[in-house]
Design a protein that fits this description.
This protein is mainly α and 325 residues long. It has 16 helices and no strands. Helix 1 packs antiparallel against helix 10. The longest helix has 31 residues.
Amino acid sequence: MLSRTADHLYWMARYMERAENTARMLDVNYQTSLLPQSAAAAENGWKGLLSISELTEDYTARYGAVTDRKIMDYMVGDARNPSSISSCLMAARENARAVRGALTTEVWETQNQTWLEFQRMLRDGAFQKDPGESFEWVKFRSHLSRGVTVGTMLQDEAFHFLRMGSFLERADNTARMLDVKFHAVESEFFGTAGLGAAASGKDQEYDFYHWSAILRSVSGFEVYRKAYSNVIRPEKVAELLILRSDMPRSLAACMDEVVSNLKHVANEQSGDTLRLAGRLQADLKFGRIDEILSTGLHAFLTQFLDRVGTLGVGISRDFLVPMAA
């Protein structure tokens, strides 16, 4: 496959996944902001969302003080923000248009219609009138995009580059979300023993909503209750979202998909990249949550993000359009 075609397919999938992830985080922050809490706690929640996408400096330079309305505007419809839902959906649509011939009609029409409908929603003020319903719409369109891809496309190289882009982006976002959300509770999380004395009833209530929000942001609340119990424990949340390969948005599940699709497109120069991906997959497959927590969750996730970043560079070098100097 031509590297330019592979590049457009890979980034089309990444941008669509990024739009969904942004909608998920905004939705959870919005729902959490409606709960009884101090103004400082609410502000920290919105600051954490900016931190996940490494957008704090850009937001502050252009918007100043952190408020829920300003952040919603910045993360939903601001075309100057490359990680806003608007920018991501536009980039996904433009990448799809560039390789229209490599996509089925259904895949292209899904991408195009998503962008057109999103523009109508922005004009009508849908995100201000009912943010929750609007974020659900973004998530649904992303699900539809993936479903149409799996259901209509030939499982050739084009398909594998689409899938690889989706799951590498998902792994990156899940790790960032975990790091920021755990950091909001403790500067470095070493398991429940590191949380100090028994929390008060009010603290326990806050913790329940905090960890529930993390799980809901990755559609994992019902999955957690089925896999463990009704009691939400931080170390079990971390285990579910890092090591459980049967959890669709976990780091382990994402890396399984990345490695599987990378093998299908491997060439003579991608050996090092495949080896790096395989080692990362093995570390998650055979890892234990107590070992991860013993050295600190933040340290583990930081290292994971560095390795995923290196993996992305390797994929770009081996298969995609070379970056301009």
